[in-house]
Amino acid sequence: MEGRATVSTPAALPYYVAFSQLLGLTLVAMTGAWLGLYRGGIAWESDLQFNVHPLCMAIGLIFLQGDALLVYRVFRNEAKRTTKVLHGMLHVSALTIALVGLVAVFDYHRKKGYADLYSLHSWCGILVFVLYFVQWLVGFSFFLFPGASFSLRSRYRASHIFFGATIFILSVGTALLGLKEALLFKLGRAKYSLFEPEGVLANVLGLLLACFGGVVLYILTRPDWKRPSQAEEQALSMDFKTLTEGDSPGSQ
Amino acid sequence: MEGRATVSTPAALPYYVAFSQLLGLTLVAMTGAWLGLYRGGIAWESDLQFNVHPLCMAIGLIFLQGDALLVYRVFRNEAKRTTKVLHGMLHVSALTIALVGLVAVFDYHRKKGYADLYSLHSWCGILVFVLYFVQWLVGFSFFLFPGASFSLRSRYRASHIFFGATIFILSVGTALLGLKEALLFKLGRAKYSLFEPEGVLANVLGLLLACFGGVVLYILTRPDWKRPSQAEEQALSMDFKTLTEGDSPGSQ
């Protein structure tokens, strides 16, 4: 706690966080169930290599990215360095797992002789990756490395939060497009419109994705659930010195 | 101005608003171009009736709904009653035009003997309609009708803004799913992956939709572009009395 007073946790926050985790874990499990029941499971060879793609994206770009956004709301009473490092590490994990998913689909396309990057899903996906990588680099430079002044960090903070939320929303939208694409490539309109079990399961998965996104954004944006100003500013003012020496600049 | 001091407009705001309008008008025009060039145009009969659906949704649920969200940011110096009534009227227009689009697609399905509500796009679409209608009713009851106390309005305000933004995001996501669906029903994977002109145009339209959503949310959420607290509270405190008598309760 570093001698800082404990910040009280809003009464309803833990329930919303628990609900978000329930949604997130369910959507990952349901992605696995969809791939297992209707797509033959997962492997790094044969046609099954494609299936690595949706599973990695559900875990990385949806669940872990969403959880990374919540770190400052959930760990309100943890030391700021812990929270900040956890935030960065969750994003690195999300990006790494998503990269495996990206390699899987490009490798699968190459082996099958399919074209790359022709669909709206793929265009949005590449946009997400570029933005996510740039956001991580800029965020790292501003908040974890020395050099950026306190006022520069304060000014960048709002942009960092906005673009973080936007990239997350775009990730959820891209996942919905991908799900729809995978469904229509296999079922076509004819089977899809007969309420085939796979179609219904995928629709429910799509709604779960949207709900997870909605609950994460609710927790993130609810004004009275924001980390109190002083704690937030202290967290943002931590620089490389504080990482190594365990000290932090005082509030403004 | 009702004797209220003029609130200064942030220097960059007009440029962002102009950019959002450029994006919005371009996406509506491009939807028209897509339907005209590749889908035979628009009519309330034959197969062309379907085309009423995407055009109405682009105008109503995307462009007008987006603009309705921006009213409090754009008209910072207008009388609060004007701003509030404009906000409500834009939403009514958006909902009405979207309803025409909804009737068009159900009527088209009925005539062609197609199933209804089997796809993720349709599930999300119905969700958007229900949420949008409820949000409008609750918003109207709290902010334009007498009865709700000042404190009740203040407490509801954050939820109104969050759900407004969420419904808008869900509308954009649903439009992307619909665009993808219309594309894959016609082109299939084979033609889509050959970078057919219609596919490329629809992809660009999809990116435009996402960009319009992003710019609207940026303008809406940028902290220093919020309507100043006093003006905002006055706007929210307007009740039926102020609508009819041209008076408003003092700020708290």
TrEMBL record, chains A, B:
One of its GO terms (cellular component) is lysosomal membrane. It is a multi-pass membrane protein. It is found in: Cytoplasmic vesicle, Secretory vesicle, Chromaffin granule membrane. It catalyses: monodehydro-L-ascorbate radical(out) + L-ascorbate(in) = monodehydro-L-ascorbate radical(in) + L-ascorbate(out). Its cofactor is heme b. InterPro entries: CYB561/CYBRD1-like, Cyt_b561/ferric_Rdtase_TM. The chain crosses the membrane at residues 12-37, 57-75, 87-106, 126-148, 160-179, 199-220. GO terms for molecular function: metal ion binding; oxidoreductase activity. Residues 19-221 form the Cytochrome b561 domain. Keywords: Cytoplasmic vesicle, Electron transport, Heme, Iron, Membrane, Metal-binding, Translocase, Transmembrane, Transmembrane helix, Transport. It comes from the Eukaryota. PANTHER family: CYTOCHROME B561-RELATED, TRANSMEMBRANE ASCORBATE-DEPENDENT REDUCTASE CYB561. Transmembrane reductase that uses ascorbate as an electron donor in the cytoplasm and transfers electrons across membranes to reduce monodehydro-L-ascorbate radical in the lumen of secretory vesicles. It is therefore involved the regeneration and homeostasis within secretory vesicles of ascorbate which in turn provides reducing equivalents needed to support the activity of intravesicular enzymes. This is Transmembrane ascorbate-dependent reductase CYB561. The lineage of its organism: Eukaryota, Metazoa, Chordata, Craniata, Vertebrata.
